[in-house]
Design brief:
Blueprint lengths: L1 H12 L6 H12 L4 H7 L6 H38 L17 H14 L4 E3 L4 E3 H4 L19 E2 L2 E6 L4 H10 L4 E10 L11 E11 L4 H16 L5 E8 L2 E10 L16 E10 L1 H6 L8 E8 H9 L6 H4 L2 H4 L8
Parallel strand pairs: 1-5
Antiparallel strand pairs: 2-4, 3-4, 5-6, 6-10, 7-8, 8-9, 9-10
Helix pairs in contact: 1-4, 2-4, 3-4, 5-10
The protein binds 3,4-dihydroxyphenylalanine (DAH).
């Protein structure tokens, strides 16, 4: 037995761990549940009674030696680690990291939401994949209306009933179908048209739609609301003008221009020397549309308007090429960070 104890002691004394992992295996080998020293305690009962006390003392001594070794090296490794860390120079400049910023189109959309929320409009959303009813039929588009033409609309899997929405006006229909007046809401989203991508037009762009339905809503309410919007968006000096236009879902319909904020209306190349910039389409919701959506057109009337966010953003920030909004070039996008709110 003495031989065995001596052998364990020799091996322990000769052991020099080079890192914490080796120290851990040492601990398991000698003091673990099935470790060499631990199992010696199990052998106590086989030792003749008169030697048992002595044996116990020796085994306890071995355990102590092992534990001291573990404690000693544990502290040593901890100290080394601390010294290693202390070598770090905390005065060095930190790695530069880029903070994300809002996309210019989101900045402008949020600004529009904010302006309309202040006068009681809520924000709504609708699906990008639409059926013929919500995108066209309910909005009073005649069956042979050119806007339904394959050239403008992306149909899904050749099903003429399912398409990517061509405007956010489809959301109007869903809101009127599912809510009772008074309705005052604004909704933004992506729209899709089968158009050639150029500096001026894109097959994907964004629109904001506004809808107001209540008793006795008049064209004067529409004009005042849009005037408030234009001044909040482009500045107090901004003038607006409404030109008669045509949309199947509004009657009467109009297009709104704002005075060019580059030349103050005097005429420049941005407004093509007219002094005015076209900004949105609007009108009184056609009674047919109200009826299509389950709203009594004898009791209620309302107005709607729709605008392109890219157009709005280009006007605000004087960007020239619509494609830049979709290229995610950090050199372009980082210029808008200071506008983040
Ligand atoms: N949906 C029209 C378009 O995409 C824009 C528009 C015009 C929306 C008049 C309206 C509106 O709500 O009343 O060109």
């Amino acid at each position: 037995m003495d031989e065995l104890l001596k052998n364990i002691l020799d091996r322990m004394e000769g052991f020099v761990p080079s890192d914490k992992t080796e120290l851990e295996s040492f601990k398991v080998q000698f003091l673990g549940k099935k470790g060499e020293i631990t199992s010696l305690f199990g052998k106590m009962k086989d030792i003749p009674a008169e030697q048992r006390k002595d044996f116990g003392l020796h085994v306890n001594k071995l355990k102590e030696v092992a534990q001291q070794k573990i404690d000693f090296y544990f502290e040593k490794f901890e100290n080394e680690l601390f010294e290693e860390k202390s070598k770090i120079d905390f005065s060095l400049p930190a790695n530069f990291s880029h903070d994300g910023g809002r996309h210019p189109l989101s900045i402008v959309t949020n600004k529009i939401y904010d302006i309309f929320e202040r006068i009681g409009f809520s924000v709504s959303y609708g699906p990008e994949i639409e059926d013929d009813w919500h995108n066209f039929s309910a909005l009073n588009f005649a069956k042979e209306h050119p806007a339904r033409d394959m050239q403008d609309t992306f149909f899904v899997e050749k099903d003429p009933d399912i398409a990517l929405r061509t405007h956010t006006s489809s959301i109007q229909v869903r809101i009127m179908e599912n809510n009772k007046p008074p309705i005052r809401t604004i909704c933004a989203g992506r729209v899709f048209r089968n158009e050639t991508v150029t500096a001026r037009s894109h097959c994907i762009f964004h629109q904001v739609e506004g809808l107001y339905i209540d008793k006795k809503v008049s064209f004067a309410d529409l004009k005042q609301t849009l005037m408030y919007f234009a001044k909040e968006m482009f500045g107090e000096e901004t003038k607006i003008r409404l030109r008669p236009s045509y949309f199947p879902f509004t009657e009467p319909s109009a297009e709104m221009d704002i005075s060019c904020d580059i030349c103050g209306g005097k005429g420049c190349n941005l407004c093509k020397y007219s002094g005015w910039v076209e900004i949105l389409g609007c009108g009184m919701v056609d009674p047919n549309v109200l009826e299509n959506c389950g709203i009594d057109s004898k009791v209620y009337s309302g107005f709607a308007f729709g605008m392109g966010i890219e157009r709005m953003t280009q006007q605000l920030y004087k960007t020239k090429d619509i494609r830049m909004f979709f290229e995610n070039d950090i050199r372009f996008l980082s210029q808008f960070n200071s506008f983040n709110a």
